[in-house]
């Protein structure tokens, strides 16, 4: 092995966990799609900054000034990481869910929204107060573009519209044709927001090159689990809407009126949507993760991950009872997120056994993408709930699935242990 295909150092790689069979083993975190471990470098940066932590923006003291600089520099770092255009704003939020809800609250009056039913609930649900068209699951990436084209063709291009699409599925790991979908949206006068929660940790995301209007992602999936997220993109809708939260920091000027009410002049910068004391540590951690991934070289990370995906797919293919879930087919490009079912097994029991007997942490359930998982499993009439499902006996259809996911910190041994355990 060359130094270019080693995992990046992360926290938790030497944590040992007890096994039900006796003894203990180092924990194999294979649930990166839910939350990735912190990069060691992010943790070190946060620890080095922590003693200097101070309130941002209005503090006159030295540490407040230092924290303000770090906070605003972090904004510039994230803008650089995402290849933002000159006029784009980077708003710090709590998560992808928060970012998309913020954008939903900023939609212009009468805005139409177009979203595939296959989206994560964070991308599927925030728009319900708008005029939403839910698009059927496409079975190829070309069909996704054609479906969107068809849906947009009927609309009045003069009215505002938004398309919301994932960059990489949190269920199948498959990449969506973002550039083509953006071109289709723009050709019909619509804007597009990219849910990059699963894409950004695995692939470079260039907002200008993809020509999307906004990008949303979460720190805790990008190796910075400190409670922050990002919404970056076009300033106009954000500037023209009511603030997401009303409060200090978002307001430039507040004054009592003669009639006893209160007049407010809101900021027109990102601060408009960042009321309250911001999560400075979380924001600093995101910027640190952006720098760490850029320094490591995304090409290397993408290449190594491709290799791990191929190994896991090959390992799973050797087990006849395993069925890997896929919307776009076996050859579709994908990130390190793979969901599957095992004939004759309840997925929750299978995942529990991986943990109890092998120290492997995966996830089971419907992955906050109920319509997609139901489509992939062949549809069902029962509601299996959040993750519970009745036992699927031999020959019976599973009502939920198992997801294994990995990334820049995953050592070969975790992947090999997983393949061996499934076998
Ligand atoms: N979109 C996708 C594709 C996701 O995978 C997730 C998290 N599972 C989200 C959005 C929501 O992210 P968060 O929980 O950090 O808000």
From TrEMBL:
Cytoplasm as UniProt keyword: no
Swiss-Prot/TrEMBL keywords: Pyridoxal phosphate
Keyword check for Glycoprotein: no
Domain Aminotransferase class V, chain residue ranges per copy: 30-418
Cofactor(s) of this protein: pyridoxal 5'-phosphate
PANTHER family, sorted: CYSTEINE DESULFURASE, CYSTEINE DESULFURASE 1, CHLOROPLASTIC
Protein's recorded name: Cysteine desulfurase
């Amino acid at each position: 092995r060359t130094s270019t295909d080693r995992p990046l150092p992360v926290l938790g790689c030497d944590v040992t966990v007890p096994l039900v069979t006796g003894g203990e083993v180092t924990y194999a975190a294979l649930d990166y799609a839910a939350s990735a471990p912190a990069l060691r470098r992010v943790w070190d940066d946060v620890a080095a900054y922590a003693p200097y932590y101070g309130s941002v923006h209005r503090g006159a003291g030295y540490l407040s000034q230092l924290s303000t600089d770090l906070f605003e520099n972090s904004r510039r770092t994230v803008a650089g990481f995402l290849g933002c255009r000159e006029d784009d704003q980077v708003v710090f939020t709590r998560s992808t869910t928060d970012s998309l809800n913020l954008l939903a609250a900023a939609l212009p009056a009468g805005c139409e929204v177009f979203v595939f039913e296959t989206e994560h609930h964070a991308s599927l649900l925030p728009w319900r107060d708008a005029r939403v068209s839910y698009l059927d699951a496409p079975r190829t990436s070309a069909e996704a573009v054609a479906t969107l084209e068809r849906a947009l063709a009927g609309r009045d291009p003069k009215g505002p519209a938004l398309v919301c699409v994932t960059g990489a599925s949190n269920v199948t790991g498959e990449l969506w044709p973002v550039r083509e979908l953006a071109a289709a949206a723009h050709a019909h006068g619509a804007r597009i927001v990219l849910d990059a929660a699963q894409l950004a940790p695995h692939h470079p995301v260039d907002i200008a090159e993809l020509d999307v209007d906004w990008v949303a992602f979460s720190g805790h999936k990008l190796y910075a689990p400190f409670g922050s997220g990002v919404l970056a993109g076009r300033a106009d809708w954000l500037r023209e809407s009511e603030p997401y939260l009303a409060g200090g920091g978002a307001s430039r000027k507040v004054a009592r009126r003669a009639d006893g009410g209160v007049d407010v002049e809101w900021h027109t910068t990102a601060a408009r949507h960042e009321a309250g004391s911001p999560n400075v540590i979380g924001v600093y951690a995101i910027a640190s993760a952006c720098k760490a991934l850029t320094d490591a070289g995304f090409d290397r990370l993408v290449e190594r991950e491709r290799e791990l995906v191929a190994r896991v797919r090959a390992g799973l293919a050797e087990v006849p009872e395993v069925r890997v879930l896929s919307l776009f087919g076996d050859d579709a490009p994908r990130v390190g997120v793979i969901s599957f079912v095992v004939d004759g097994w309840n997925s929750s029991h299978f995942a529990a056994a991986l943990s109890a007997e092998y120290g492997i942490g995966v996830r089971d359930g419907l992955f906050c993408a109920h319509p997609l998982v139901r489509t992939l499993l062949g549809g069902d009439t029962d509601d299996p709930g959040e993750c519970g499902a009745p036992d699927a006996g031999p020959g019976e259809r599973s009502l939920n699935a198992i997801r294994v996911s990995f990334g820049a910190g995953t050592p070969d041994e975790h992947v090999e242990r997983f393949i061996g355990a499934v076998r």
